[in-house]
Amino acid sequence: MTDETPYGLLGGRERVLAIVTAFYDAMERDEPELTALHDCPTPGRVSPGTRERFGLFLVGWLGGPQEYMERHGHPRLRMRHARVPIDVAMRDAWLRCMSTALDHCAVEGPVRGFLDQRFAEVADFLRNRAE
Question: All domains of the chain, ordered by start, with CATH?
Fold first, then answer.
Protein backbone atom coordinates (compact mmCIF):
# COMPACT_ATOMS: atom_id res chain seq x y z
CA MET A 1 0.00 0.00 0.00
CA THR A 2 1.32 3.38 -0.96
CA ASP A 3 0.08 6.93 -0.90
CA GLU A 4 -0.64 6.48 -4.62
CA THR A 5 -3.67 4.29 -3.96
CA PRO A 6 -7.04 5.97 -3.41
CA TYR A 7 -6.80 4.62 0.16
CA GLY A 8 -3.52 6.43 0.68
CA LEU A 9 -4.60 9.58 -1.11
CA LEU A 10 -7.68 9.77 1.10
CA GLY A 11 -5.53 9.48 4.22
CA GLY A 12 -6.12 5.87 5.22
CA ARG A 13 -8.57 3.86 7.25
CA GLU A 14 -10.13 6.54 9.45
CA ARG A 15 -10.99 8.75 6.49
CA VAL A 16 -12.46 5.84 4.51
CA LEU A 17 -14.56 4.80 7.50
CA ALA A 18 -15.71 8.40 7.93
CA ILE A 19 -16.93 8.30 4.32
CA VAL A 20 -18.84 5.08 5.08
CA THR A 21 -20.46 6.67 8.13
CA ALA A 22 -21.44 9.76 6.16
CA PHE A 23 -22.75 7.53 3.34
CA TYR A 24 -25.12 5.57 5.57
CA ASP A 25 -26.14 8.69 7.49
CA ALA A 26 -27.10 10.33 4.17
CA MET A 27 -28.92 7.20 3.08
CA GLU A 28 -30.97 6.99 6.27
CA ARG A 29 -31.77 10.70 6.15
CA ASP A 30 -32.42 11.19 2.43
CA GLU A 31 -33.17 7.87 0.73
CA PRO A 32 -35.73 5.77 2.68
CA GLU A 33 -36.42 3.42 -0.25
CA LEU A 34 -32.72 2.63 -0.56
CA THR A 35 -32.37 2.25 3.21
CA ALA A 36 -35.24 -0.27 3.19
CA LEU A 37 -33.24 -2.56 0.88
CA HIS A 38 -30.71 -3.07 3.68
CA ASP A 39 -30.78 -5.02 6.92
CA CYS A 40 -32.57 -2.62 9.27
CA PRO A 41 -33.19 -4.15 12.70
CA THR A 42 -34.53 -0.73 13.69
CA PRO A 43 -36.76 0.75 10.98
CA GLY A 44 -34.85 3.32 8.96
CA ARG A 45 -31.50 2.41 10.53
CA VAL A 46 -29.02 0.23 8.63
CA SER A 47 -27.50 -2.44 10.85
CA PRO A 48 -24.05 -1.85 12.35
CA GLY A 49 -22.92 -5.12 10.73
CA THR A 50 -23.83 -3.84 7.27
CA ARG A 51 -21.97 -0.60 7.92
CA GLU A 52 -18.93 -2.52 9.15
CA ARG A 53 -18.87 -4.91 6.17
CA PHE A 54 -19.10 -2.05 3.68
CA GLY A 55 -16.35 -0.22 5.55
CA LEU A 56 -14.06 -3.24 5.35
CA PHE A 57 -14.94 -3.72 1.69
CA LEU A 58 -14.26 -0.08 0.82
CA VAL A 59 -10.94 -0.04 2.69
CA GLY A 60 -9.74 -3.01 0.62
CA TRP A 61 -11.30 -1.87 -2.66
CA LEU A 62 -9.49 1.45 -2.35
CA GLY A 63 -6.13 -0.25 -1.85
CA GLY A 64 -5.93 -0.65 1.92
CA PRO A 65 -5.71 -3.82 4.04
CA GLN A 66 -7.74 -6.73 2.69
CA GLU A 67 -9.63 -7.51 5.90
CA TYR A 68 -12.91 -7.94 4.03
CA MET A 69 -11.42 -10.75 1.94
CA GLU A 70 -9.91 -12.37 5.03
CA ARG A 71 -13.23 -12.35 6.91
CA HIS A 72 -15.83 -12.74 4.17
CA GLY A 73 -14.03 -14.05 1.10
CA HIS A 74 -14.15 -12.57 -2.37
CA PRO A 75 -16.73 -9.77 -2.59
CA ARG A 76 -18.55 -11.27 -5.62
CA LEU A 77 -20.52 -8.07 -5.88
CA ARG A 78 -23.02 -9.19 -8.50
CA MET A 79 -23.79 -12.42 -6.67
CA ARG A 80 -24.18 -10.69 -3.30
CA HIS A 81 -26.47 -8.05 -4.79
CA ALA A 82 -28.54 -10.39 -7.00
CA ARG A 83 -31.37 -10.64 -4.45
CA VAL A 84 -31.63 -6.84 -4.24
CA PRO A 85 -33.73 -5.11 -6.92
CA ILE A 86 -31.35 -2.50 -8.31
CA ASP A 87 -32.86 -0.32 -10.99
CA VAL A 88 -31.83 3.10 -12.29
CA ALA A 89 -33.60 4.84 -9.40
CA MET A 90 -31.79 2.77 -6.75
CA ARG A 91 -28.47 3.16 -8.56
CA ASP A 92 -28.94 6.90 -8.63
CA ALA A 93 -30.03 7.02 -4.98
CA TRP A 94 -26.87 5.10 -4.01
CA LEU A 95 -24.72 7.51 -6.02
CA ARG A 96 -26.41 10.54 -4.42
CA CYS A 97 -25.63 9.16 -0.97
CA MET A 98 -22.01 8.52 -1.91
CA SER A 99 -21.66 11.98 -3.43
CA THR A 100 -23.11 13.51 -0.26
CA ALA A 101 -20.65 11.49 1.84
CA LEU A 102 -17.68 12.54 -0.29
CA ASP A 103 -18.80 16.17 -0.05
CA HIS A 104 -19.25 15.85 3.72
CA CYS A 105 -15.72 14.46 4.04
CA ALA A 106 -14.29 17.13 1.71
CA VAL A 107 -12.93 14.68 -0.85
CA GLU A 108 -11.70 16.82 -3.73
CA GLY A 109 -9.32 16.94 -6.65
CA PRO A 110 -8.17 14.02 -8.78
CA VAL A 111 -9.08 11.38 -6.19
CA ARG A 112 -12.66 12.73 -6.16
CA GLY A 113 -12.89 12.54 -9.93
CA PHE A 114 -11.54 8.99 -9.85
CA LEU A 115 -14.00 7.92 -7.13
CA ASP A 116 -16.99 9.54 -8.81
CA GLN A 117 -16.18 7.68 -12.02
CA ARG A 118 -15.47 4.31 -10.41
CA PHE A 119 -18.50 4.42 -8.11
CA ALA A 120 -20.73 5.26 -11.10
CA GLU A 121 -19.27 2.35 -13.09
CA VAL A 122 -19.72 -0.15 -10.28
CA ALA A 123 -23.21 1.08 -9.38
CA ASP A 124 -24.30 0.70 -12.98
CA PHE A 125 -22.63 -2.73 -13.20
CA LEU A 126 -24.76 -3.89 -10.26
CA ARG A 127 -28.06 -2.90 -11.84
CA ASN A 128 -30.23 -5.96 -12.31
CA ARG A 129 -33.46 -4.31 -13.40
CA ALA A 130 -33.97 -2.56 -16.75
CA GLU A 131 -35.66 0.60 -15.55
Answer: 6-125 (1.10.490.10)
